[in-house]
């Protein structure tokens, strides 16, 4: 049989739209990243009339589904996010004709902008190409007639972000020291519930009152005082926050007696918006970015400032550093034009930690993360040059990377952290004992 | 009296040290734990009862497998690197740097200045177990490897990125007949290079260096390589007889400083508690639920067999097939009716010639004068060597040999997977011809020899190990990345207390998953068709076979001669193509057989290939290690259009401009392969003498290697460090290397980004390399997309250093530069059209070698373009293919300029007769995880073959050659009627 060389069937992966009718019939599945924030954000969407379900699954099959569904050299977050959704679709829990998926798309030069396409391919390969996928993006990459976020919802989202950031921030300062295990988590849950409820009324608007009450509740948790070993977590955004991705890094650190320091997600949003300004400055791109920064960025900044002010005023907890400070820190390290992935923000987060006295840092990244070759691993040497006390461990996450390897490296970082803390307390260590006879065998 | 106990449990061994109050060593031991970590720890305490009982005891546990023991027993843990530094400070206070190599990990500790302690990243596993594997590859024990290395005369360059990569480089050298002495030393050198490049990352290793860990304690040769490379002397290189106990020693010292103390009974109780703790490994379902299931399985697979006839009684014509694989050599002798007369399967122990020589002798001996050899064929890595050595009639492409054999068992075969010791070959069969071919690469390297080495390291013969796995109750999940990652997953399983049978089954499942999801990229069994034939020695392992069927959910055919299929296929082809008389060496000729091999360096081009020249009786020569045909024929390959050479030629013959303002250095790396014509003219017109870095060479690369901060970044980025070093060496006044988020919008994509690495690599250079202060290093953020804005922006940048540069002059220079770049692009497109016309006129087949601009660098592409040319193809590049008249959307977000060209080229390829596409992919290129699937689908839907070649530091083109020849065979198979023999006679 002879083959025709120019027979050509166009290769197209279907892109079913999420239509206005589906709003009433379809359940939208949302992959998990940050429990506190995402619970609230989902609630905001529900109030807009969507049926939304946040995927709280956390089992090994998610990774297996991911491995089957996407190219194995794709970054780990894509593998997990897509794996989590495919796993949910195959679980039998949902009517496959009445379900839609939601995924974020940053639109930058990193692979992450392609998660959406990879998800669609995975769906097509699994015979599920009729399932609509909704893209959440800020760059107008894709639109769905049935999915619109109102300004009201956007405002609520901005509030949800800062509320979430604050709870996460304060929780980490209390949890390692709580006298009664689990108490901090109960307060977190209480407030997540409370705030979720508040979004149904205008009550969420009264931030100052809420902040005061949140801080009061956390401060009331009984603590056992001891010398803190603080460990900052920075990294690729999914790896930094998602317990599914980083093998519950925060829990691990707490179990080792350390206090995790994790900055909020508002910084990342602000960073995305801010890059519009830099792009215009460096490359002469559309000046619209400047306007968006002034409006949206300005609003988010004011929310963040208010949150910081509340923590400072309350006085029991350390306050996070404002975004406006972050961009100054990277001067002399990396240009603010580096905007793919977490870009200059990641470098500045490491520097911010060191400046605020947190020398111990876990830098999380998916194995083979491209931007992190530059902004994380690429900058560590320079950071250490200027801050010799910096104790940074870069940890790669991957379906094949074993937990033991990761934990062993983190333990080394912790051992050094403890030693540094000791030295600070007791001054220089006494000179070592003279070697005894049996032991010296040089050359 | 109190004692201090340190226990170090690593990936393969348990070390124990007991110290008294004044740190005298009362007891020390070192033994393999064979995964029985908790049990053995308890036994150790019991063994020491007499010494310990009645004393106050301080104890700490360390090591990767110790973590779990500590968790479960509640005994204190200390991180092993930290423990090492404790012991070093006490026992060798003069130490500046500690280098420790363990079974799986490599560590470096800087004790002076700013103390720093580092471990290898997961993706850099060239340590003890790597040396074990290499020794196994050379069929010597580690001690012998060491002795051999001391007698070396030369060193081969071996990829030092990770053990798996190194193996890929070493294997072919073995097959080419390189001296074991040299290989042994080269293996050690690779370990040294990797430790220095991967761990020190630019921090100089100076002063007194303390060497620790098993390999450094035992291996003189490895020590020698370290001492020489680091330029140490007798005094500054510290070796200690305590090396293998050192970490345990550190743990004991650490224990001394802890507040808790125990009595003997406490320790026993703690360990008994740990033993009782359930195994934590999340088990997979067992391979067989019942004995009946196993019997049915066995019965089903017994039916796929060939009849055999005893060679010692047979009389008539015979056909010999040889499969000279990378680690094993297989022979099959068949009669006129395809019955198997004789077969042989063995490890070649690094000497395939010897095996074939002996086996041919045996065949002649058994067959006496009753048999007449009518034909012979050879396939596999050693094909050319055997052709030269024994005058075999035919050389056969591996894939064709395997397909021929598989077809014998099932004429309708739709998919073949062959898992051998070192590699995996999978191919689809469509319309009776080989369609797409998939080979594994370094990062999906889990194959048969891996299971075998693993079994051996745990102290089991492979057969026993495989059998254990069959009835495992809860196989452990070991992941699917490369063997290095699997090694570390096994460590995890050991820590969790998994028994050996679960590990065995887990390994089989991992090898299978690796094949299915990483190499084949299968989504469902349907894609492989109904008739699947599995072969290769690894499938003789029933655990692997069973895992494969289970994972796929589909029964497969495994011929009983699964390990011999290549040889059997070769024999079938020998029969098909027989001319009635074979040229293979006769019995007499075999008796006279002699062989010498000499290593030389080829000086015909800048590649400086390390060649091995083999000489055989009658003056027949076989040259290996070459990347092109020049050392063989003395000439360049056929003079066919080759866009890679053309493009490289353009870049190396750019116009020169007079020096009025000083020199401007530009590294010929990454996106400069695209933009150099622009910057050359731009700076030339402004009065700079543009100095471009030299062509990439290994030497240039290694000059910057120690400044690479991330060992998993792609090779093209790593080479950049060398180019900058080269410019520094040239003493240029300034270096210009801009950051560019955006590339040109060429109208065939949705956005026009550069990849993150290309975009921002200058930042890495600046942060990690020491550019002398007298050299201005300019790395501004620039975009060339908007001409007016560019002029404004670059004027501002340049004026900081050269205030007298006027905007007018910049604008003029920019205009000329844009023209120069356009002329450059036009020249490439015109040459592309000429090549297409040439192929048409001369009826040549064409390959679109699709990569990124920097893939034309001969160090990066390893001369693959020449290799393709030597097979008689016209070569186009992705950017020389004309743009489609209108923009077609693809199914991914098409947002990178360079990648958009590949989609365009794939689409164009579909419409071009006698043209196929080969995609070059650099290791670590994250973007290609997205592009490869899309390009593959675009081509497949257009009825084209998809071939992907992954490239990195690895120098050896053996696998690439097989792949390209397979592609050629597939193209020929499509063009004419298949030339393959037709099934059973």
From TrEMBL, chain A:
It comes from the Bacteria. GO terms for molecular function: kinase activity. Residues 419-443 are annotated as: Disordered. Keywords: Kinase, Transferase. This is Nucleotide-binding protein (Sugar kinase/HSP70/actin superfamily). It comes from Harryflintia acetispora.
From TrEMBL, chain B:
Its cofactor is [4Fe-4S] cluster. Residues 5-255, 320-574 form the ATPase BadF/BadG/BcrA/BcrD type domain. InterPro entries: ATPase_BadF (IPR002731), ATPase_NBD (IPR043129), CoA_activase_DUF2229 (IPR018709), CoA_E_activase_dom (IPR008275), Dehydratase_Activator_Redct (IPR051805). This is CoA-substrate-specific enzyme activase. The keyword GTP-binding does not apply. Signal peptide: none annotated. Pfam families: BcrAD_BadFG, DUF2229. Residues 663-881 form the DUF2229 domain. Transmembrane segments: none annotated. Keywords: Iron, Iron-sulfur, Metal-binding. The keyword Iron applies. One of its GO terms (molecular function) is metal ion binding.
């Amino acid at each position: 049989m002879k083959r025709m060389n120019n027979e050509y069937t166009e290769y197209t992966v279907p892109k079913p739209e999420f239509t206005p009718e589906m709003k009433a019939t379809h359940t939208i599945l949302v992959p998990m990243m940050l429990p506190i924030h995402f619970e609230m954000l989902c609630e905001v969407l529900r109030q807009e009339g969507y049926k939304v379900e946040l995927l709280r699954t956390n089992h090994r099959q998610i990774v297996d589904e991911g491995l089957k569904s996407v190219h194995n050299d794709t970054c780990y977050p894509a593998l997990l996010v897509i794996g989590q959704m495919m796993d949910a679709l195959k679980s039998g829990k949902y009517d496959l004709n009445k379900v839609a998926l939601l995924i974020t798309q940053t639109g930058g030069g990193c692979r992450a902008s392609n998660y959406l396409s990879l998800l669609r391919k995975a769906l097509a390969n699994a015979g599920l190409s009729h399932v609509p996928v909704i893209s959440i993006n800020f760059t107008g990459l894709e639109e769905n007639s049935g999915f619109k976020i109102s300004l009201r919802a956007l405002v609520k989202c901005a509030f949800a972000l800062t509320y979430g950031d604050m709870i996460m921030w304060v929780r980490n300062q209390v949890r390692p020291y709580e006298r009664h295990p689990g108490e901090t988590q109960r307060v977190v849950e209480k407030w997540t519930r409370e705030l979720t409820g508040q979004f149904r009324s205008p009550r969420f608007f009264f931030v100052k009152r809420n902040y005061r009450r949140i801080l009061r509740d956390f401060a009331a948790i009984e603590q056992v005082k001891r010398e803190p070993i603080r460990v900052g977590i920075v990294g690729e955004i999914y790896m930094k926050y998602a317990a599914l991705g980083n093998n519950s890094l925060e829990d691990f650190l707490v179990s080792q007696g350390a206090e995790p320091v994790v900055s909020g997600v508002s910084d990342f949003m602000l960073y995305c918006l801010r890059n519009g300004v830099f792009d215009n400055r460096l490359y002469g791109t559309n000046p619209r970015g400047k306007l968006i920064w002034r409006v949206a960025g300005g609003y988010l900044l004011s929310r963040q400032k208010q949150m910081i002010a509340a923590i400072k005023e309350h006085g029991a907890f350390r306050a996070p550093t404002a975004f406006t400070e972050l961009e100054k820190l990277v001067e002399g390290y990396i240009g603010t034009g580096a905007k793919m992935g977490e870009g200059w923000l990641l470098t500045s987060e490491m520097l911010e930690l060191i400046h605020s006295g947190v020398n111990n840092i876990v830098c999380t990244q998916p194995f083979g993360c491209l931007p992190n070759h530059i902004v994380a691993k690429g900058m560590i040497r320079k950071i250490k040059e200027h801050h010799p006390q910096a104790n940074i461990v870069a940890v790669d996450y991957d379906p094949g990377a074993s937990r033991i390897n990761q934990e062993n490296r983190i333990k080394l970082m912790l051992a050094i952290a403890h030693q540094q803390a000791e030295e600070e307390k007791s001054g220089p260590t006494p000179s070592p004992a003279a070697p005894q006879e049996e032991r010296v065998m040089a050359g | 009296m109190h004692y201090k106990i340190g226990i170090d449990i690593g990936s393969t061994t348990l070390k124990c040290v007991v110290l008294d109050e004044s740190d005298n060593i009362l007891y020390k031991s070192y033994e393999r734990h064979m995964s029985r970590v908790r049990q053995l720890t308890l036994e150790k305490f019991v063994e020491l009862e007499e010494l310990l009982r009645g004393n106050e005891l301080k104890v700490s546990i360390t090591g990767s497998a110790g973590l779990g023991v500590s968790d479960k027993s509640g005994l204190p843990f200390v991180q092993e690197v930290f423990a090492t530094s404790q012991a070093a400070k006490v026992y060798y206070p003069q130490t500046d740097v500690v280098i420790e190599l363990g079974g799986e990990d490599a560590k470096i500790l800087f004790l002076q200045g700013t103390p720093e302690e580092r471990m290898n990243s997961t993706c850099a596993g060239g340590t003890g177990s790597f040396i074990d594997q290499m020794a196994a590859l050379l069929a010597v024990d580690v001690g012998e490897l060491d002795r051999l290395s001391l007698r070396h005369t030369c060193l081969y360059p071996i990829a030092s990125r990770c053990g798996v990569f190194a193996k890929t480089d070493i294997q072919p050298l073995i097959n080419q007949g390189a001296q074991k002495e040299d290989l042994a030393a080269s293996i050690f050198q690779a370990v040294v290079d990797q430790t220095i490049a991967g761990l020190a990352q630019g921090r100089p290793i100076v002063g007194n260096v303390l060497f620790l860990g098993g390999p450094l304690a035992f291996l003189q040769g490895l020590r020698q390589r370290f001492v020489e490379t680091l330029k140490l002397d007798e005094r500054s290189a510290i070796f200690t007889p305590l090396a293998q106990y050192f970490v345990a020693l550190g743990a004991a010292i650490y224990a001394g400083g802890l507040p808790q103390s125990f009595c003997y009974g406490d320790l026993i109780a703690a360990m008994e508690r740990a033993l009782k703790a359930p195994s934590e490994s999340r088990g997979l379902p067992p391979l067989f639920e019942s004995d009946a299931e196993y019997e049915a399985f066995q019965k089903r697979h017994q039916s796929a067999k060939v009849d055999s006839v005893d060679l010692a009684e047979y009389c008539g014509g015979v056909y010999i097939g040889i499969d000279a694989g990378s680690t094993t050599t297989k022979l099959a002798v068949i009669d006129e009716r395809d019955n198997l007369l004789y077969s042989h399967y063995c490890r070649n122990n690094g000497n395939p010639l010897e095996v074939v020589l002996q086996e041919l002798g045996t065949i002649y001996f058994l067959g006496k004068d009753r048999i007449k050899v009518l034909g012979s064929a050879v396939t596999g890595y050693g094909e050319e060597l055997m052709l030269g050595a024994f005058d075999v009639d035919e050389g056969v492409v591996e894939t064709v040999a395997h397909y021929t054999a598989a077809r014998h068992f099932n004429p309708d075969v739709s998919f073949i997977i062959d898992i051998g010791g070192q590699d995996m070959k999978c191919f689809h069969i469509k319309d009776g011809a080989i369609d797409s071919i998939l080979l594994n690469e370094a990062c999906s390297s889990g194959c048969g020899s891996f299971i075998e080495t693993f079994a051996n390291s745990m102290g089991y013969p492979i057969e026993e190990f495989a059998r254990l796995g069959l009835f495992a109750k809860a196989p452990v999940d070991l992941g699917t990345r490369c063997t290095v990652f699997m090694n570390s997953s096994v460590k995890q399983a050991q820590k969790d207390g998994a028994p050996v049978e679960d590990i065995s089954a887990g390994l089989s499942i991992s090898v299978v998953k690796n094949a299915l999801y990483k190499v084949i990229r299968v989504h469902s069994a349907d894609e492989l068709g109904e008739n699947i034939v599995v072969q290769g020695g690894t499938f003789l392992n029933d655990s692997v076979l069973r895992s494969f069927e289970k994972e796929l959910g589909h029964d497969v055919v495994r011929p009983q001669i699964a390990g011999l299929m290549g040889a059997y296929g070769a024999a079938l082809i020998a029969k098909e193509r027989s001319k009635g008389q074979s040229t293979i060496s006769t019995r007499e000729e075999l008796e006279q057989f002699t062989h010498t091999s000499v290593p030389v360096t080829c000086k015909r081009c800048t590649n400086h290939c390390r060649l091995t020249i083999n000489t055989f009786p009658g003056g027949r020569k076989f040259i290996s290690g070459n990347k092109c045909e020049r050392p063989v024929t003395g000439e360049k390959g056929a003079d066919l259009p080759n866009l890679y050479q053309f493009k490289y030629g353009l870049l190396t013959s750019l116009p020169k401009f007079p020096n009025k303002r000083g020199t401007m250095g530009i590294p010929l790396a990454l996106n400069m392969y695209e933009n150099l014509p622009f910057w050359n003219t731009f700076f030339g017109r402004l009065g700079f003498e543009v100095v471009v870095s030299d062509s990439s060479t290994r030497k240039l690369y290694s000059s910057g290697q120690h400044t690479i901060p991330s060992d998993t970044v792609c090779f093209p980025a790593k080479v950049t460090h060398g180019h900058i070093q080269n410019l520094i060496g040239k003493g240029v006044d300034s270096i210009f290397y801009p950051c560019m988020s955006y590339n040109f919008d060429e109208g065939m994509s949705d956005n026009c980004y550069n990849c993150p690495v290309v975009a921002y690599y200058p930042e890495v250079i600046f942060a990690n390399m020491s550019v002398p202060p007298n050299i201005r290093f300019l790395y501004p953020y620039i975009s060339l997309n908007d001409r007016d804005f560019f002029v404004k922006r670059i004027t501002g940048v340049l004026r900081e250093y050269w205030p007298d540069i006027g905007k007018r002059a910049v604008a003029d220079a920019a205009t000329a530069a844009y023209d120069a770049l356009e002329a450059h692009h036009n020249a490439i497109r015109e040459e592309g059209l000429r090549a297409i016309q040439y192929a048409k006129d001369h009826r040549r087949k064409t390959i679109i070698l699709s990569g990124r601009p920097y893939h034309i660098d001969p160090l990066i592409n390893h001369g693959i373009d020449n290799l393709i040319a030597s097979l008689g193809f016209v070569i186009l590049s992705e950017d020389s293919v004309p743009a489609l008249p209108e923009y077609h959307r693809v199914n991914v977000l098409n947002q990178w300029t360079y990648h958009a060209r590949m989609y365009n080229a794939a689409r164009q390829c579909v419409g071009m007769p006698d043209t196929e596409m080969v995609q070059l992919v650099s290791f670590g290129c994250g973007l290609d995880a997205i592009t490869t699937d899309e390009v593959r689908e675009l081509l497949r839907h257009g009825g084209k073959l998809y071939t992907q070649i992954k490239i990195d530091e690895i120098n050896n083109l053996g696998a690439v050659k097989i792949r390209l020849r397979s592609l050629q065979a597939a193209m020929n198979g499509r063009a004419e009627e298949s030339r393959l023999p037709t099934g059973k006679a």
